[in-house]
Each structure stands twice: as structure tokens, then as C-alpha cells.
Write a structure and sequence with these properties.
4 helices; 5 strands; about 130 residues; alpha+beta; 5-stranded mixed beta sheet
């Protein structure tokens, strides 16, 4: 099983673990407890699960036209950008960083956790 290492938008390690081959990056994040949001529920109908792949980019499933079209709508797209709901793991380890837009979406989807983070001064993050 490939090992996945996930960083938050500020470059801090948020989660790490092994997940089965064929798992999407979004599902891997969910399984490992990372704050990786997806407004459409992971069906390639938005760009909020956007990530930057730091290691293992070439081992991921190929990008199809629909993903490329939605990725064009994402904020701060880079050559190593993928949509977490579409990029599936092969048998190699992958390291990726969740974008600010995706983390914000996660907090929007989890109001209880957002309110708790706000009360502790952890959300929104300090720049």
C-alpha cells in the first residue's frame, strides 16, 4: 500500500499513513483525518479539492479532460496541481499539500469544528 503524506496550506504536516492503491487523494485525506474539503462531494463538479502534489505526481492516474476543465477554475494552479477527487494512487508513495481554498471548504462543511477552531484562535489561520 502506498504511503501518503499530507500537508496543510501553511506547509505543516497534517496527516500521514497508508491507503489502498486506487484510492483518490480526497478519500485518502478523509481516511487519514486531513482537512481536505470538496463542495461537490468529490464528483468532479467543482475545484475545491485542489491540491499541489509535491512527490509522486507521475504515479497518479492520468488527468482526464473533465478534471483539466475544472482545474482551470481553481485558484493558484501550478504544474503539480491535481483535483483530489480525481487523482488516484498507484503503488508509489505520494506527498501533497492541501490548498487554502480546500481547507476553507472543509471548515465550511464542518461548522462545529470551525466554531471550535475559532474559539481557540486557530481559524482563520494567521498569515
Amino acid at each position: 500500500m502506498p504511503k501518503v503524506t499530507i500537508y496543510n496550506p501553511r506547509g505543516e504536516k497534517e496527516a500521514e499513513g497508508e491507503v489502498p492503491e486506487g484510492t483518490s487523494l480526497l478519500h485518502a485525506s478523509t481516511e487519514l483525518g486531513a482537512k481536505h474539503g470538496s463542495a461537490c462531494g468529490g464528483v468532479c463538479a467543482c475545484s475545491t479539492c485542489h491540491v499541489w502534489v509535491k512527490q509522486g505526481f507521475d504515479s497518479l492516474s492520468d488527468m482526464e479532460d473533465n478534471e483539466a476543465d475544472y482545474l482551470d477554475r481553481a485558484y493558484d494552479v501550478k504544474p503539480n496541481s491535481r483535483l483530489g477527487c480525481q487523482a488516484q494512487l498507484a503503488n508509489r508513495d505520494v506527498v501533497y499539500q492541501i490548498t487554502e481554498e480546500s481547507e476553507k471548504t472543509w471548515y465550511d462543511e464542518h461548522p462545529k469544528e470551525r466554531h471550535e477552531a475559532e474559539a481557540k484562535g486557530l481559524w482563520p489561520p494567521k498569515k
